[in-house]
Amino acid sequence: LYSAFLVKPGPPEILKVEGMKEMLRVDLRRKPKEPNYDSFICQICYQATTKVISKCIDIQIEIIERNKSLNLTGLQNFTNYTVAVQCKVKGSSKWSEWSNKVTNRTEEQAPLKIDLWRVIETYPNGNRSVHLLWKEYKEFPSSGIITGCKVKYTAERINTTFEKKYNHNEPIILSLTKDAYNIRFTAHNSIGCSPEATIR
């Protein structure tokens, strides 16, 4: 007699992988002409393309389900992941071939941290040109694409605050008097702003 437990099913198909915040939503379906075997067990494997981070999870697809959606959670933001699926009939040891591979990226998050430092030019009258230099804190994962930054600097003696905005690659040069200043810096992307980095 024909037994589903001896049959190697056809590979499933990944219809869509949608990137969200710290997760991917995966839509998949069983092969359209696959007979209605018992429930399927599917193994979904995903791997970050920028670092060796991979994981596999098992899910069950019931007999009546042709399509299945699930969320892969706890992922790194703004990171490309490649997803593939294989299935077998529940209770069988015969796995299908792997599905098509689909790659997508999780959403950005606001910059996590900015490293800030300065180079000072001093003039005979005591005034200064302060060149602010910064870089994104390059610890995996990247949080997104920084598009600009904002600088606030306060003269302590007169308690006056100035504010300037800059594009991502624009030099930041502050013309300051000989007074002491507190400088606060934030970078931003499409999601939001980093925590303030301060320098005096």
TrEMBL record:
Belongs to the type I cytokine receptor family. Type 2 subfamily. SMART domains: FN3. Keywords: Glycoprotein, Membrane, Receptor, Repeat, Signal, Transmembrane, Transmembrane helix. InterPro entries: FN3_dom, FN3_sf, Ig-like_fold, Type1_Cytokine_Rcpt_Type2. It is a single-pass type I membrane protein. It comes from the Eukaryota. This is Fibronectin type-III domain-containing protein. GO terms for cellular component: plasma membrane. It is found in: Membrane. Residues 8-109 form the Fibronectin type-III domain. SUPFAM superfamilies: Fibronectin type III. It comes from Micrurus corallinus (Brazilian coral snake).
